[in-house]
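S1.2 Input.
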Amino acid sequence: MANNSPFKTTEQRQRFSRKTLNIIIITVSIMIVLFYNMPGAKIPDSFTNNDTKLTEEVLAQPNDKELTEADTQQQTKAKPFSPEDHLSSLALIAQATPKSHNIDIQSWNTTKGAQVLFVEAPEVPMLDVRLVFNAGGARDPKTLPGLALLTNGMITEGSKTHNVDEIAAHFESLGAVLDNGSYRDMATISLRTLSEKNLRQKALDVFYGIISTPTFPEDSFQRLLKQLTLGLKHEKQNPKQLVSRQFYQSLYPEHPYGHRIQGTDDSLKNITLSNLKKFYSKYYVSSNMVIAITGNIQRSEAKNIANSIDNALKQGNPAPRLPTPTALANKQDHFIEFPSSQSHVLMGTLGIKRGDDHWYALVLGNEILGGGGFGSRLTKTIRQDKGLVYSVYSYFSPMAVNGPFMMGLQTKNASRQEASELMLNILNDFASQGPTEKELTEAKQHLLGNFPLNIASNSRIVDYLGLIGFYHLPLDYLETYPKKLEKVSIADIKNAFEKTLNRKALITVALGQKDITEEKAR
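S1.3 Output.
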């Protein structure tokens, strides 16, 4: 059982026979050869600029990316899987990725109101089921930040029929993986298993019990509380987290996005098991859920799975829409004194929500501005030409309501002011003048070339299905995404940046040594 939350599961020892090890080596070798012989195959410089960020901030620091959120520290533990038990020949390896990028998304609603999105993928003998609940950190009570995260983490700690160790052993014996995560907008619980009928049914039966009858054991609760409390202590020594926390609090001072979704010293002392059970009962219900399914099954089988999930949960009510964040009136400058020879700077403002018409122009524009790695303007100018920073980037994080736009850099203290001013100047020039034709062409080639790779696995497809359902995107989103990118013009990018970003009300958070006069003199 893998747990995609900040909470570590029981350590599992993996023992591989020589035969198993040889199969793994051969498998990896074949995949490497296949990858490097794909037309246009290229390792992306950054995963923040295109649509590989699938959930909210899937919403993250660009170099510490997560699928899904900036402040959430995720630890995934792979469970042992024996290829010799289930892979009869290497011919199966050649089917590891879909041969076509035409994704036929089928959708329907369950009796209790859950939306189901299904893609049949017979090329791989796997089944992926992902439940997406409108139960992220934005649903925390104002006085109890961290409640959503703790609730999600506790759901997989035991059911009425299995304790946490039995759950782990069961999925391990089937070569299946249980996964969960909590972010600002959403919370997820996922299952990946082999699609062979007997094996998948054994995995699904336990999965149904986990999602519908969590027991919230006291010992697990205390363990997770300790882990979050320890995380708070570590955060005080982590420059990136300190800067990010200040930025979100400043950008969303009265909005649910602004609180620390991992909790605070006070909230972690006050959260009780009763709070978790009430949160679960309110938000982990059918009418507040999207069911994403993909794999080697037919629609009728997907319907049976969706109905079983629907029957296992209460109907409940969908969560209300989040309030629209208040636009900033003036610019803000914040400084965090920190005993370090390096400075971290985060600059930004409100961006867009998911589904905004400007999204495609902003994706391409940001690729050119700061999301395209070494090919972006920020990197070329501030890092390569001026040599002022160790890293620099920019990205948009669309969410259910307006997410942030961020630019960030890391530099030595003496270069902090110069680098920050240059970063702002580059943004202003780009927003007012737009990219060159050459920059636009290269950005399109890069994003369009990488997009097929982003939907070349079942795990990526099921993530996209959850995203499409949760944010109410059109079912043809994956089909039209490349086409809409291709149509973006220079004028579209200029218009999108001008209308989206209030550059007169930027928040700047800097961290480092305040007095840098002595360092400049050296």
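S1.4 Remarks. The mean pLDDT is 84.
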